[in-house]
């Protein structure tokens, strides 16, 4: 479980997050949505302990992360950022094995156990036949799947993903969410794609100007009354053949806000 209390983050005089309170229950998938610049990545990075808050705290399974080492964090939390910039000279297998390094430390060594975990993770993400390919030649979607495989090998109970479907085609987008639900007991996912938030998440948090202005089930939160003022659009919710909500947006007519 992740518990965030009064979390406030500044960059110099600028306030990026303003007193965030939220609980992310074990076993749930939580989407963070909101306009560009609203603080989604900042919140995710604070959950990962790479930002030092100016107020409040983040607890993982009841422990304040401010008191814990990077290794302690890596054993519990895996992070896949928005910009994937892996070393292009590494192979897929090298990169995925870094998940074990994060968890166990450089002195623990590799060995058969790590090789097996890497092979298994690449099987899960559909890259088993590309083990020796260099990262330099991979497409954006393939890199995304490599990053997910690395989190599998890291074996952390909490996975934080920043826009994981960015580079993916429709089939892989659908699959990645199945995968996230399968691999991570607890996941927090920054998304612009509201349909995916509805399809795959238990809880949605709407962030605006560093504050959570709505939180709850996708059905309750992803409605025009919440979304229109936040995104400054008119939201149209359509039901698809699978009964999943699909969203269409139009600019407000003149005189409407
Ligand atoms: N280190 C920093 N110094 C100054 N401003 C920062 C810093 N980091 C983030 N910001 C600003 O904080 C705001 C929130 O940034 P953040 O990346 O969290 O937004 P976001 O909601 O993830 O946006 P997007 O949807 O565009 O990815 C932005 O205005 C950004 O420019």
TrEMBL record:
List each coiled-coil range.
none
Q: Which InterPro entries match?
A: AAA+_ATPase, ABC_transporter-like_ATP-bd, ABC_transporter-like_CS, P-loop_NTPase
Q: Name one Pfam family in it.
A: ABC_tran
Can you give the residue ranges of the ABC transporter domain?
2-234
The answer, when asked if Nucleotide-binding is one of the entry's keywords, is yes
Please give the PROSITE patterns that the UniProt record associates with this protein: ABC_TRANSPORTER_1, ABC_TRANSPORTER_2
Entry's SMART domains?
A: AAA
Q: Which UniProt keywords apply?
A: ATP-binding, Nucleotide-binding
Q: Domain of life here?
A: Bacteria
Gene Ontology terms for molecular function: ATP binding; ATP hydrolysis activity
Instruction: Write down the PANTHER family for this protein, in alphabetical order.
Output: ABC TRANSPORTER ATP-BINDING PROTEIN (PTHR42794:SF2), HEMIN IMPORT ATP-BINDING PROTEIN HMUV (PTHR42794)
Q: Protein name, please?
A: ABC transporter ATP-binding protein
């Amino acid at each position: 479980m992740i518990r965030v209390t009064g979390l406030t983050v500044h960059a110099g005089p600028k306030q990026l997050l303003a007193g965030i309170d939220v609980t992310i229950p074990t076993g749930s998938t939580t989407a963070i949505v909101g306009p560009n610049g609203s603080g989604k990545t900042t919140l995710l990075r604070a959950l990962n302990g790479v930002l030092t808050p100016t107020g409040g705290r983040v607890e993982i399974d009841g422990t304040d992360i401010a008191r814990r080492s990077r290794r302690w964090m890596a054993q519990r939390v895996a992070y896949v950022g928005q910009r994937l910039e892996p070393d292009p000279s590494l192979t897929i297998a090298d990169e995925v094995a870094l998940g074990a390094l994060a968890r166990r430390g450089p002195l623990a060594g590799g060995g058969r156990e790590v090789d097996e975990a890497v092979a298994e993770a690449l099987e899960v993400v559909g890259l088993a036949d590309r083990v020796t390919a260099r990262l330099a030649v991979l497409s954006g979607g393939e890199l995304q799947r490599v990053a997910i495989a690395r989190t599998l090998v890291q074996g952390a109970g909490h996975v934080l993903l920043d826009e994981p479907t960015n580079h993916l085609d429709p089939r892989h987008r659908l699959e990645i969410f199945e995968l996230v639900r399968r691999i991570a007991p607890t996941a927090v996912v920054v998304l612009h794609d509201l349909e995916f938030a509805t399809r795959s998440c238990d809880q949605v948090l709407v962030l605006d100007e560093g504050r959570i202005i709505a939180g709850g089930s996708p059905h309750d939160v992803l409605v025009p009354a919440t979304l229109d003022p936040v995104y400054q659009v008119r939201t149209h919710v359509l039901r698809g053949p699978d009964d999943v909500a699909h969203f269409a947006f139009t600019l407000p007519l003149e005189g409407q806000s």
